[in-house]
Design a protein that fits this description.
76% helix; mainly alpha; 0% strand; 12 helices
C-alpha cells in the first residue's frame, strides 16, 4: 500500500510538472512552454499512434527542443512506417520548423510507401504549395491526380493552396481541371469563389 501511494504521488508530481504551462497563467505566457507540455502529454497518452507522435515532434521542434522533436519523429515513423499521412506529418514538422532539406527528404517517403490514405499525397502537395515551393508541390499533386483523376474537390484545394501562396498561374490550372470535370456543379464555383475571397500570403 505504501509503495502504491508513492507511485501515485510520483505520477501526480509528473502531471503537475507538465500542467505548469497548461493552465490560465501558462497559456498567457511563453507559447514554447505550452507546445512542449502538449507534446509531452500526447507522447504519454498516445505512445503507439504515429500521427500523434509526429504532431508531438512538431511541437517540440517549434518549442526549441530539436533533439526531443527528432526522437519523436523517428518513433512516429517506426510505429507507422508505411502510412503516407504519418510520413507527411513528419515532413510538415520539419517544414514548419524551417528545415526545408529535412522536410523534402521526409516528404519523398510519401511517394515511396504505399500505406494509409492517398490523401497523404494530396496534403503533401498543399503543404509545399503554401510554403511557396510550387515546383515541388506539383510533383505530389500530379501524382495524386494520376491516382484519383476525378477528385475535383481536391483539385480545387490544390488551386486554393497555390493561390494563397501567390502562384495564380498554377492555381488556374487546377481550378480549370475541376471545372472540366464538374462544369455544372455549384459547389465548385462556390469553393473557387471562396478561394479568391480569402486573404493570400504576401
Amino acid at each position: 500500500m505504501h509503495r502504491l501511494s508513492l507511485f501515485a504521488l510520483s505520477a501526480f508530481t509528473l502531471l503537475s510538472a507538465q500542467d505548469r504551462h497548461l493552465d490560465t497563467t501558462g497559456f498567457a505566457g511563453d507559447p514554447k512552454g505550452v507546445l512542449a507540455s502538449c507534446a509531452e502529454r500526447l507522447e504519454a497518452l498516445k505512445p503507439k499512434d504515429g500521427k500523434y507522435l509526429a504532431e508531438a515532434g512538431r511541437f517540440q521542434l517549434l518549442a526549441g527542443n530539436p533533439r526531443k522533436g527528432e526522437d519523436l519523429l523517428r518513433f512516429a515513423e517506426m510505429v507507422d512506417p508505411r502510412d503516407r499521412e504519418v510520413l507527411r506529418l513528419i515532413g510538415q514538422a520539419f517544414l514548419k520548423a524551417g528545415r526545408q532539406k529535412d522536410a523534402l527528404a521526409a516528404y519523398d517517403k510519401v511517394l515511396q510507401r504505399d500505406g494509409g490514405p492517398r490523401k497523404g499525397i494530396a496534403n503533401t502537395g498543399m503543404d509545399l504549395a503554401e510554403a511557396r515551393l510550387a515546383r515541388e508541390a506539383e510533383r505530389y499533386m500530379d501524382a495524386y491526380a494520376l491516382l484519383e483523376n476525378n477528385d475535383w474537390e481536391t483539385f480545387i484545394a490544390f488551386g486554393r493552396a497555390h493561390l494563397r501562396a501567390g502562384s495564380r498561374r498554377m492555381a488556374a490550372t487546377w481550378f480549370q481541371r475541376a471545372l472540366v470535370l464538374k462544369p455544372t456543379e455549384e459547389r465548385a464555383y462556390l469553393e473557387i469563389g471562396r478561394a479568391f475571397a480569402e486573404p493570400r500570403i504576401r
